[in-house]
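Data card: per-record layout.
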Amino acid sequence: MRTRISSASVRGDFVSQIETISGQSLLACNQCGKCSAGCPVAFSLDILPNQVIRLAQLGIQDVLESQTIWTCAACLTCVSRCPKGIDLPRVMEALRLIQMEKMGNAIETTSIPETMVAEVPQLALIGGFRKYSK
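The structure for this 134-residue chain is written out next.
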């Protein structure tokens, strides 16, 4: 008799955590590389944006040690180029939050009203988190 294994158990808690925080499906990415090709700060990244997604898809937590997640300018160029509509800056922000939680200096995001998150531009939220997390 065959047993069914849920996709959540195969993919792991790390992947689920990223998807929950970012609201993005990591498996939607087909690794076309358009995000990396259009990234204006790609020259300064230690790993390219599509590689960040791939490491996250595989549940490899070494991605948290990458400088790329901190260097991302959240300019949304990757979002405009992505044929699958993946909001990569939201994934980068999720990875930053996970890393900050791991290091013990996370910002409590549950105190932000959901209506505010929907109304405030993503770049303003990211800038605020970076500014007040130090």
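Known properties of this structure: The chain is about 55% helix and 0% strand. The chain has one domain: 7-107.

See the next section for split statistics.
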